[in-house]
Amino acid sequence: MTEPIETTKLYIGGAWVEPHSTEVLEVFSPATGEKVGSVPLADEQDVDAAVRAARASFDAGVWRNTPPAQRAAVIRRAAELINERGADIGALVSAEMGATPGDVATLQQLAGTGVLNAYADAAEAYEWEEKRTGIFGETLVVREPVGVVGAIIAWNVPLFLFCNKFGPALAAGCSIVLKPAPETPLNANLLAELFTEAGVPEGVISIVPGGIETGQALVNHPDIDKITFTGSTRAGRAIAATCGDQLKRCSLELGGKSAAIVLDDADIAASAPMLVFSGILNSGQACVAQTRVLVPRSKHDEVVDAMVTVASTFTPGLPTDPETKVGPIINSRQHEKVTGYIAKGKKEGATAVLEVPAPEIGTGNFVGPTIFTGVTNDMTIAREEIFGPVISVIAYDDVDEAIAIANDSDYGLAGSVWTADVAKGVEIAKQIRTGTMGINWYAIDPSSPFGGYKKSGIGRENGREGLESYLEHKAILMPMGYTS
């Protein structure tokens, strides 16, 4: 990035319009502190304008009445445009939230276009109408879009999250108003333009940058039929309470404290690189990060030594430096939170066997990979989501104890099992109360359901299940004796 991107208008209904708000949201690099750009901060009246545009477009049927195959074609074209502009988008996202261009390309662009294409596949394959025969004869079951969607996303993987909200909403035939995180609004405007270029009609999509007040205005708006939110569990509770009061649909993708269970037959040398990466990916700023590594007591030192060797090579630094593997923490507040957790881990008796030094450059919001041993599952660092590159190694005596430790958490979003026996890994994975599991690695598959148990959220994204969360199901009962 060179010159800051100064945007003076809001992208409402697929067009640039003058904002009602006079407030400006400025964006600064978490790595260097340099200004990346600015956007208008959408106020309640701006949100109302966006929702009214979405409602008008939905009621007019300009998108919901478009055949699913045509909607799928537009979504696929949007994915193509993202890939065509990948370098520019990646540079912008990197400047906004600090990830290295390589991480943006793999964790966000590849994943984001992957979910778009998967939702397009789901829309084409989905049975939008179905005939059923029951005790009263024939019924036609029809699937219809839920209506106007309000989407609120986090800053940690904004490109991916944008795609994972726009994809299912548009595939279902909904209109959508999206609020990006205040740290990363610029890429949302660019992406929205690409969807319009791909063929999304006027009125269907809007972007309302802002903070808590903007989000509250979106959640509270009576013309929003569904809220989809990715962010903290605390914010998710508040959103769920409002949606419950208004009997408004909602889906929540929240926090995690995932466990990676290493069995005694695992190939430790081969597993260590992915095991470490799964714990500190995106500078640890990932809800699915495998931050609790459960290891057999008999293999404890061997696993720790292998992990320390690998993690020591994950160099923190500026995202523009080709040698950097760990970018900055998003801001000073989050940096203070992460370093506070590290201090608390030591105070509660855990041992930091690795603390990669943080460079004194730019903003200083850097934390090097940190690995703790001597951790018990009742310690703060084992129970709370740190959202930084901090891994807790917990020893266990048998597999039953490992399963119990993994399940002893308020969260249930992700997890993994590391073993030479895949069938055994699957057997253990089925016993973990969590929404997604991996065997000998972890990833989110665009065609398979993603979401959490317990305080990790409500509902599922990705695949057919993700599409269905944006649909209503209508039954039309035929006259008795009627056959089609």
UniProtKB/TrEMBL annotation:
Limits of the Aldehyde dehydrogenase domain: 16-476
Alphabetized PROSITE patterns for the sequence: ALDEHYDE_DEHYDR_GLU
Active site as annotated: E253
Keywords: Oxidoreductase
Gene Ontology molecular function: oxidoreductase activity, acting on the aldehyde or oxo group of donors, NAD or NADP as acceptor
Highest taxon of source: Bacteria
Family that this chain belongs to: Belongs to the aldehyde dehydrogenase family.
Listed name of the protein: Aldehyde dehydrogenase
